[in-house]
Amino acid sequence: MGKGAIKDLGPELKARNFQKALIVTDKGLVGIKLIDSLPKELDAYNVEFTIFDEIKPNPTEQNIEDGLSILKDQECDVVISFGGGSSHDCAKGIH
Question: Taking a C-beta distance cutoff of 8 angstroms, is the pair 22, 94 a contact?
Answer without folding.
Answer: yes
